[in-house]
Amino acid sequence: MATTYLEPAAATSEIKENVVTIRGKPADDKLDLYARYFVGEVLDYCNRDDFPQALCVAGAAIIVRWLEDLENGGRSALKSIKQDDTEYQFAVTEVPQTGSTIESDLYALRPRLNLYRKVRWRE
Fold first, then answer.
1. Bridge partners, residue 82, by sequence
2. What global pTM score does this model have?
3. What would the DSSP string read from start to end of the chain?
4. pLDDT in tens, 58-104
């Protein structure tokens, strides 16, 4: 089966439509910004001018997570929980070193992105 590729603007629109469908909420400025950011990052990483349509649903799922994080105060590693005289300490060494949860989500997507990556030769 051949992969279908979209223009960046069409990919952004499709991702936004998918996010609205998943969330059941109308689109806002943040959604547009996140969709353009996701498409731009994928195009930059893959060295492409066209966007793989297969990644539109994956992009929508990631953006839904980003929007939920924004509404809920973000994601961070839980270091400990304490109630009364009981305290649990968790190992937080597996926290991504990339700096933000958005960057770690994109980093985790790289194995899928490698399927669509073009190699550029230096001249």
1. 87
2. 0.78
3. -PPPEE-HHHHHHHHHHHHHHHH-S---HHHHHHHHHHHHHHHHHHT-SSEETTHHHHHHHHHHHHHHHHHHT------EEEETTEEEE---TTS-TTSSHHHHHHHHTHHHHGGGPPP----
4. 999 999 999 998 888 766 666 677 888 888 776 655 555 546 788 88
Q: Which residues contact 15 (CB under 8 A, 6 or more apart)?
A: 35, 38, 39, 56, 59, 60, 63
Contact 105, 66 (CB under 8 A): yes
3-state class of 60 per DSSP?
Answer: helix
Relative to beta strand 5-6, strand 51-52 is antiparallel
**In whole angstroms, what separates CA 36 from the centre of its chain?**
11
The C-alpha atoms of residue 8 and residue 46 are separated, in whole angstroms, by 13
Q: How far apart are CA 97 and CA 86, in angstroms?
A: 30
Q: What distance lies between CA 85 and its chain's CA centroid?
A: 39
